[in-house]
Amino acid sequence: MTTHGALRELAGLFLRLGVTAFGGPAAHIAMMRDEVVERRRWLTDADFLDLLAATHLIPGPNSTEMAIHLGYRRGGGPGLLVAGACFILPATLIVGGLAWTYVRFGDTPQLGWVMYGVGPVIIAIVAQALWKLGTAAIKGPLTLLIGLAAGGLALRGWNELGLLAIGGLVMAGARLGRPGIAALAAACLPATVALAAGSGVAAPITLTRLTFFFLKVGSVLFGSGYVLLAFLRADLVDRWSWLSDAQLIDAVTIGQVTPGPVFTTATFIGYVLHGWSGALLATFGIFAPGFLFVACSQPLIPRLRASAVTSAVLDGVVVASLGLMAAVTWNLFRSTIVDPPAAALAAAAALLLFTTRLNSTWLVLAGGVVGAILRSAA
After folding, report:
1. Domain assignment present for 199
2. In b/e form, how buried is each residue of 96-114, taking b as 16+ CB within 10 angstroms?
3. How does DSSP assign 260-314, residue by residue?
4. pTM reported for the whole predicted model
5. Which of 4, 24, 91, 140 lies 20 to 30 angstroms, CA to CA, from 361?
6. CA nearest 291: which of 261, 311, 323, 335?
7. Domain that holds residue 60
8. Which of 11-15, 204-208, 224-228, 305-309 has the highest mean pLDDT?
9. Are 316 and 171 in contact (CB under 8 A)?
10. 262: left (phi over 0), alpha (psi -120 to 50) or beta
11. Which of 292, 311, 340 is the last residue of a domain?
């Protein structure tokens, strides 16, 4: 395929995912796997898992960085830009429009009916991806144990980055016969997010300060949307008094219930604080570091696989990342499957996914329609 053809294909795929990928990073990654491994066969599951592990080793939004990785793998530098921008753009426009509505009318639109139907479908999509990725990644009792331990400890509140590091060290120590490395892993404690709330002194809202704040967030933040909430609150609410707690919760909620990257929360906040200029600069700030990190890290993946030590570490990180994905899925399940109709919808979606080659995008759209019908009939 020509370079232009590859770029058109990337643009079409990631624009569509940017409009239909509900459910957060785990769901986005599951949908990407369905498209690039199952349908287009651009990658094997092993290749996909290597890229997934690489996204967990760098700061920033995992699913967006996965889109950027896939674009880079398929279309080089131009593909990196096209895939990432096309995945981010629809969500940015949707969230920007909702922010305009919020500022104009003072409230968030009611989107619960969408997530009522979409949520159970997302659970099924992630479960299928976990099963297939796990089949490729779980190569023995130790890898299974690492994955289960990472998932269990994540549910107990352990830091994601610490669990990935421990998984990599345990695997390296076991595979290379180095008990000292395994002992080091056992002694590691999960990293702790320390937030300095500051003195609560208000600071003027400027586009420069807004941009550099979100550049900082995109450069250092690991973890889920809940970690993002804590990180934003420390500066925007407690330190600078730019937002109220209610406004921040509204911003994070909009980022989570709209399709595409959860980090478009930055778009919403930027608009609330400084209109369209603030929305654009905040979006640029939080996502720009990911493009740079992916461009620097992807060429290193083959070298990591060529070394016995780093290959073992990468295998450990892969299965630990699947454990984290399983923990996210369990939390999604508990908050999504709220009644028998939702459970039936999840079961029906899972049955279709495991027995047919139906595109997951259509299932997401159908879930929204079914959810609306069920809610209106209730």
Report:
1. no
2. bebbeebeeeeebeeeeeb
3. S-GGGHHHHHHHHHHHHHHHHHHHHHHHHHHHHHHHHHGGGHHHHHHSHHHHHHH
4. 0.69
5. 4
6. 261
7. 3-191+294-377
8. 11-15
9. yes
10. alpha
11. 292
pLDDT digits 0-9 by tens, 143-173: 899 899 888 888 887 767 678 788 888 888 8
Q: How far is CA 229 from CA 72, 189, 207, in A?
A: 30, 23, 21
Q: pLDDT, tens digit, for every residue of 189-206? A: 444 333 333 445 667 889
**Size of the chain in residues:** 378
Residues 32, 178: one domain?
yes
Amino acid at 19: V
Given a contact cutoff of 8 angstroms between Cβ atoms, the answer to whether 134 and 147 are in contact is yes
Rg (CA), the chain: 20
Judged against a pLDDT cut of 60, whether residue 318 lies above it is answered with yes
Distance between CA atoms of 41 and 32, rounded to whole angstroms?
11
To the nearest whole percent, how much of the chain has pLDDT over 70?
A: 85
